[in-house]
Write a structure and sequence with these properties.
Blueprint lengths: L1 E12 L2 E5 L24 E5 L2 E15 L2 E14 L20 E2 L6 E10 L13 H6 L2 E10 L3 E2 L19 E2 L32 E2 L19 E2 L3 E13 L5 E9 L33 E9 L1
Antiparallel strand pairs: 1-4, 2-3, 4-5, 5-6, 5-7, 7-8, 8-13, 9-12, 10-11, 13-14, 14-15
Length: 305
């Protein structure tokens, strides 16, 4: 048995980002841009060091080998926090409000569990029980394998596509969070997603927990209070399995018959819901599946010589 467990962490101080150095404060328009006094009222984007990205994790793995078979798995418990993903541009570019971009990384998954196995029957030529009896002829050359994946969902960044009266050139708007907790309706995810389904049957979170910011122009403007990536989408679960049998025709020629099942449990995995409060027709509703949406069987044969 090979077992490992440990802590893995990284810090990217000044991770590169695509930054608008000429963004304006809310309500100030082009006149409020940082370089407006020089006559520069357009966006000026540069790839610059921008804030710090952190990753902390507990990682464990094990592997067991016996004869020609292998069984193992790995588990990661982690958290990744940044201000923008993979050198991308933060949503709020006005630098004095940069802290509003801090949140879970878009690729963060709290739990990630992988299990795999490969089993070969110890009968037949060259195996532990290499007799030429009837048992070896019936079950010799069989191999079976499988992979299971179970992970947490990715964060959902609820945004406000319409800025209304924000008037902060260079930045985009976020909605207000008006409830202390955002209820998740996980029971709505039972069963598969039929073609042309009514999306209201797949509402994932409480839409009333968020409200669009729409302040009259006569009043001071501000960015919304909803943080970045504060709720998490549906988790992912999948099992793939395969069965092979290799039959020796001659000393140098083998035929392998293969049967594979992708998503063997026919388990649906749902994509993240619509996350723009300005698009009420899809906001909060799940309308897509991710990964292999339904069970698939594949049969094949291979001749090696």
């Amino acid at each position: 048995m090979n077992e490992q467990i440990g802590y893995v962490g990284t810090r990217a101080v000044g991770q590169m980002g695509f930054i608008n150095i000429n963004a304006a404060a809310p309500g100030t328009g082009n006149a409020g841009r940082a370089l407006a006094s020089l006559g520069l009222t357009a966006d000026i984007n540069e790839t610059l060091p921008y804030m710090t990205t952190t990753y902390d994790s507990l990682q464990a793995s094990f592997r067991r080998r016996f004869n020609s078979s292998t069984f193992g798995g790995s588990y990661t418990f982690s958290k990744a926090i940044n201000f923008a993903d993979n050198d991308a541009n933060p949503r709020i570019q006005y630098y004095p409000a940069a802290k509003l971009n801090r949140g879970l990384a878009g690729y963060d998954r709290t739990h990630n569990f992988q299990l795999y196995g490969f089993w070969e029957l110890p009968f037949g030529r060259g195996k532990q029980f290499a007799s030429e009896g009837i048992l070896s002829k019936l079950v010799g050359g069989f191999q079976a394998g499988g992979v299971m994946s179970a992970t947490s969902g990715t964060p959902i960044n609820v945004v406000q596509g319409s800025p209304n009266n924000l008037n902060a050139p260079g930045s985009a708007q976020m909605p207000d969070l008006v409830k202390s907790n955002v209820q998740i309706f996980s029971d709505n995810l039972k069963g598969s997603l039929p073609t042309g389904a009514d999306p209201t049957a797949y509402q994932y979170f409480d839409r009333s927990a968020f409200a669009a910011v729409n302040i009259p122009t006569s009043q001071p403007q501000r960015f919304g209070t909803a943080g970045r990536n504060i709720i998490r989408g549906p988790g992912f679960f999948n099992i793939d399995m395969s069965v092979f049998r290799t039959i020796g025709i001659t000393e140098g020629i083998n035929v392998q018959f293969r049967a594979e099942a992708l998503n063997v449990l026919n388990h649906p995995n749902f994509g993240n819901p619509g996350a723009d409060v300005s698009t009420q027709g899809t906001f909060g509703f799940i309308t897509t599946l991710v990964g292999q949406p339904s069970r698939i069987f594949r049969l094949g044969a291979r001749v090696s010589f």
